[in-house]
Amino acid sequence: DAGIVIIGGGQAGGWAAKTLRDSGYNGKLSVISDEPHDFYERPPLSKAVLLDQDGQLGLTRLFTEEAVAALDIDWHRPLRAEAILPADKTVVLNNGETLPYRQLLIATGGRPRRPEGLWQSHPKVLTLRSWNDAVQLRTQLAQAKTLAIVGGGWIGLEIAASARKMGVAVTVFERQSALCLRSIGAEVSQALLELHQNQGVEVICGCGEITLNDDNGRPQLKSELTESQTFDLVVVGIGVILNLELAEQAGLTVRNGGIVVDDQGRTSDPSIFAVGDVALHSQLGVCLQSWAYAQNQAVTTARSMLDAGQPGYQEDAWLWSDQYSENIQILGIPASGSHCITREDDHSKVYFYLNADNQLVQMVAFNDARTIKLGKRWLAAQRVLDPAQLSDPSFSLMALK
Ligand code: FAD
């Protein structure tokens, strides 16, 4: 039996492999990974790993070494899958080898987007996606006094926070008029702006086109709002290009920038499944690119690969970000026409976005994981909420359980 082949040894690939074995699959399990490492977590790469100057933390593993060995994986690494041939049910690797499969799982994630030209080759212009990227950035940050971050999205802001903790002077350039505008409302954007400004970050929103030049080995940036400025280091955090090429070339249905899957993770080819960043959320129709989705949708899909009668994936969008001492959690996705209600006490602030019927569509909590938990229930149940109760810190939200 050709067994199951997984392309991509990241978070979703790792959880799928573990779940297949935990669910009793004892056939052949192959993983093709272009990274040399065992499965690992990416969220710490922009946070704890950058601050871990003496490298104590080590690889932020998903599972212990023993647990990975127990999965009895036939590893093909570091190697790349170059093509999927659905008619032959094989995968072609970049060493010329072909691997047959009975079922195939695509878990290829994404790679950082970079502008063309010097942005691609300047040694002091970095991006962050992998463990190796993080180690390189950590080393370079330790020697830098000034850092420019191009792109005020979540990863850029987390790197800004880590760099400030290390005493580096940070400038963030954001082309749009506000931070993280694609994933949150204007009120939360403003709170993020103030958070970073209070920590001494210079944030330049609406900066337009940025040009990069070399100034004696150091990167020099000029934007439509600022004169040329030379930095020790530049990090580009302008989003991700999802690794969809294999799926596209194999003729799988790709829409809205992601692989179309049903709630069991099955693509338009019944033998091929997709998980994690590359897989469109089957209800929301967008690629969430979050840790929780990568894990939970992969777990559901792996179970479904073994038994199509398993319950499908159903979960609202949820992600978090840690910046300075703030734990920021985002539940749901933004919807136009919603209105914002805030709730604040000494330690936390919550932004509720409600639709015209006062049902929750999105909420963002600064240091309030408990309210997020309640919000998950309200969102799933489409519960009608009372704005006056939400905004009153003396009203216990637990009463709305
Ligand atoms: P990945 O983890 O990217 O794994 C894909 C793997 O496939 C990679 O190893 C890739 O190299 C490999 N691959 C690709 N193509 C091929 C090929 N052709 N052949 C072989 N191998 C291939 N989410 C949150 O919710 N909260 C956070 O705080 C947060 N922080 C983050 C911080 C950073 C720095 C990053 C990069 C991401 C963060 N995320 C966070 C997002 C989260 O980590 C991702 O959503 C998650 O890793 C996606 O898992 P994945 O398995 O789909 O992709």
TrEMBL record:
- Which residue ranges does the record assign to the Reductase C-terminal domain? 318-400
- In this chain the FAD/NAD(P)-binding domain maps to 4-298
- What keywords does the record list, in alphabetical order? FAD, Flavoprotein, Oxidoreductase
Gene3D superfamilies in UniProt = 3.30.390.30, FAD/NAD(P)-binding domain
In the UniProt record, does the keyword Flavoprotein occur? yes
Q: Which domain of life is it from?
A: Bacteria
Named cofactor requirement(s): FAD
Is Flavoprotein there in the keyword field? yes
What InterPro entries does this protein map onto?
FAD-oxidoreductase/Apoptosis, FAD/NAD-bd_sf, FAD/NAD-binding_dom, FAD/NAD-linked_Rdtase_dimer_sf, Reductase_C
- What PANTHER family does the database record attribute to this sequence? APOPTOSIS-INDUCING FACTOR 1, RIESKE DOMAIN-CONTAINING PROTEIN-RELATED
Name of the protein described by the UniProt record: Pyridine nucleotide-disulfide oxidoreductase
Q: What is the lineage of its organism?
A: Bacteria, Pseudomonadati, Pseudomonadota, Gammaproteobacteria, Enterobacterales
